[in-house]
Design a protein that fits this description.
heterodimer; A: mainly alpha; about 85% helix; B: about 140 residues; mainly alpha; 2 domains; about 0% strand; globular
């Protein structure tokens, strides 16, 4: 039993090393393309845009945070996806308060949806480790395009 | 019966959100198209529902040491005033106009993300082929 635990620890260490290695390579590659100053300016401008989306649509900003974090802040894909969630949290709190005060949050429907979201979120973090994200992402974007077009058709 | 659908829609949005892919882009159309919830109300649900989910998920991610706080701060600081400002602006737009803007945004973002993902996949695939080629040498 003890040996198994030790083996797991070693495996984890190797995994961490791999990730660090990837980070370094990515940093090295990306530094050449953009200077530090342009990266910083782009980060600020795009972040303001993310905030605008979050306020206007109540979501969808997280999707743009991931490329900001990977390309402009040199984070690995997995780290960027996790960090994006924490980035959106303060934005959702501030704009959520504005929506709440205006009376747009209806508890009878919203409460149940929220319960589902919490459950789904926990499932999502565990699935994130196992599934290859690219296949899922392509399917998801397909669904997004479909949803967007059908919304246009019904509302126009 | 409707309660079950509310919860199911939440779970679907939560899974995608927990993976850091933007659950709101799925949850909002689910709520407006299938469950007939007004656009503004759907947005409010998405914002509020995201908060406890993000707290739980971020605790898990912090334990895994998967967070980069410095970069997070860099994005959050310029984003907050914009998000508050536009949240107020939403109060002056009708739900119908808002949902049309949202639908356009959703379609465009979906197409852009789809193309960039496919591009990344082909790049990764080509790199792999190159490696195999050099190994054969």
């Amino acid at each position: 039993m003890k040996n198994q635990n030790d083996a797991e620890k070693v495996l984890k260490k190797i995994e961490n090393l791999k990730f660090k290695g990837n980070d370094d390579i990515e940093k090295h590659d990306k530094k050449k393309i953009l200077s530090k100053k342009t990266k910083f300016a782009l980060t600020i401008i795009l972040s303001a845009f993310v905030g605008a989306l979050n306020g206007l649509f109540g979501g969808g900003g997280g999707m743009l945070v991931v490329p900001i974090l990977t390309i402009l802040c040199n984070l690995s894909e997995q780290k960027a996806h996790s960090s994006a969630i924490l980035t959106i949290l303060p934005l959702s709190i501030t704009s959520g308060i504005v929506y709440l005060v205006r009376g747009d949050f209806v508890l009878s429907s919203g409460g149940w949806v929220s319960a589902g979201v919490i459950l789904g979120g926990i499932i999502g973090t565990f699935v994130m480790k196992k599934l290859s994200n690219n296949t899922l992402a392509v399917i998801f974007y397909g669904v997004m395009i479909f949803a967007g077009i059908s919304m246009l058709v019904t509302k126009l | 019966m409707k309660l079950l659908w509310y919860i199911l829609a939440g779970i679907a949005g939560g899974i995608i959100g927990g993976m850091g892919m933007g659950g709101g882009t799925l949850l909002i159309p689910l709520l407006t198209l299938l469950l007939d919830i007004e656009q503004k109300h759907a947005q409010a649900i998405n914002l509020i529902a995201f908060i406890p989910m993000a707290v739980v998920v971020s605790i898990i991610n912090a334990k895994r040491k998967n967070l980069d706080y410095k970069s997070i701060l860099k994005v959050v600081v310029p984003a907050i005033p914009m998000s508050v400002g536009l949240s107020f602006a939403v109060g002056k737009i009708s739900s119908n106009v808002l949902s049309i803007i949202f639908a356009v945004f959703l379609t465009v973002l979906g197409i852009v993300m789809m193309i960039s993902t496919l591009y990344k996949c082909t790049l990764a695939y080509m790199c792999k082929c190159k490696e195999e080629y050099s190994y054969n040498d």
